[in-house]
What does this fold into?
Amino acid sequence: MRKITRALLSVSNKSGIIELAEGLIGLGIELISTGGTAKALKTAGFKVTDVADITGFPEILDGRVKTLHPKIHGAILAKRNNLEHETTIKAQSINYIDLVVVNLYPFRETISKEGVSLGEAIENIDIGGPTMIRAAAKNYTDVAIVIDPQDYKMILSELTENNGQLNQNTKQNLAAKAFAHTALYDLAIANYFTQLTNEKNIAFSGIVTDQMPKHLVLSLTQEQSLRYGENPHQMAALYVDSLVLEKGVATAKQLQGKELSYNNLLDLDAAWALVSEFSETACVIIKHTNPCGVPFGKTASEAFELARATDPVSAFGGIIAFNVPIDKKAAQAISALFVEAIIAPDFSAEAQEIFASKKNLRLLVKKQDTNINSQITSTNVVEIKHISGGYLVQTKDTFQVLIENTRVVTKNQPTEEQWAALDFAWKICKHVKSNAIVYARQGQLIGVGAGQMSRIDSVCFGATKAQLSLIDGVMASDAFFPFRDSIDEAKKYRISAIIQPGGSIRDREVIDAADEQGLAMVFTGVRHFKH
It folds into this structure.
């Protein structure tokens, strides 16, 4: 390890920089700085050498060029144990720089402002900063690079303990962090220009326009480690993509309870996606990503009671989502049931007090958007699934079927009440694993047949699971019926109407079966498989 004697400080984010500078000076380290950083340090009373005094060249082009000079980059990039480098450095009267503290112009913060101009965005593209970061990170065996103010205390502590030196593991870790930092920065810029130019051949982070990108690059940062994956022997963590503007469960605030597990987050996401479909007061109970209770209610407590009534057995140990705040009465009702987690736009103080006695119960707050489509920006967010040797990527299924755009294919027309029930059932069906069958009445889920290998099995299973009466209910199917047997089976349960995509080569047989049974049938023309 070599003792650090000279440090270059050039930061956009000034938080903690005065304390860092004071600590470095206390260790006998000479400070070099630029522009606003130098001014801040001098104002604080510290002795600082301007970069211009080292290069012999002033800042030019409104500050676009200030550190791009051999006397800066030679001082950073020179290998200390390389005789040729050492000879060159001495010949050019260059003094080594051993520590580089740099963070970048706030590009992402700038472009997130409403009404930001292209010119303002461009002027917040840092050039010298990333160059210094990459130079120092490349030469990490001799130079330490610090890009995060959160690391200042750690750096000062280690320098103090080690007589002004940093160990190689620390410098290597800092270099890895630095390269990730510049990579994310460049991705943000690429993403911004891609959206401006709408060039389909340019890849950017997880967002596509009207066709899939040729290259897909993710900018994932670990948000939190998880207790385990799908099973206790699997490790897991939650990552967020800072370049994707989608709102969702990953940004929810946890108020109490145990750490979230991988499965918790999958179920929470499924619950939140479904409850976000509705503008009416709704509650969703999810078990293994499938809904087992979805009703409307006049209040949160009524919605919960109706949700639990759908399938009281499956509700035990489930995940609950509301699209309205949870009050005292709702909390009292829920507290009688064992659940893993609850997500809602808010919890009243009384509700939080009731839930506080259940220390393991996870409470999450997520502000509700108008509907699921408003969770997505004007571009589409992609879903990614891993397969052996690669990844499958698709845009999210945010398609909304408007009832007025569906087609009645039977002699019987749905009544007004049946139309409302069909619309409700169809929205739920999109969130059920295929093959999916949903039985419902207006504002009340009755039964679910999920993930069966044949559609008629889902028809039978959904009816078998139903705890409430199926009489005069409706049935939704996520895909077409390949045979009339499902229609004949469903009629045994005395349902009144069916909604499905249509598109089977046997559609005529299926329609005839519905007419024979006196059922109304609606075609949506859209399939909603969920594997």
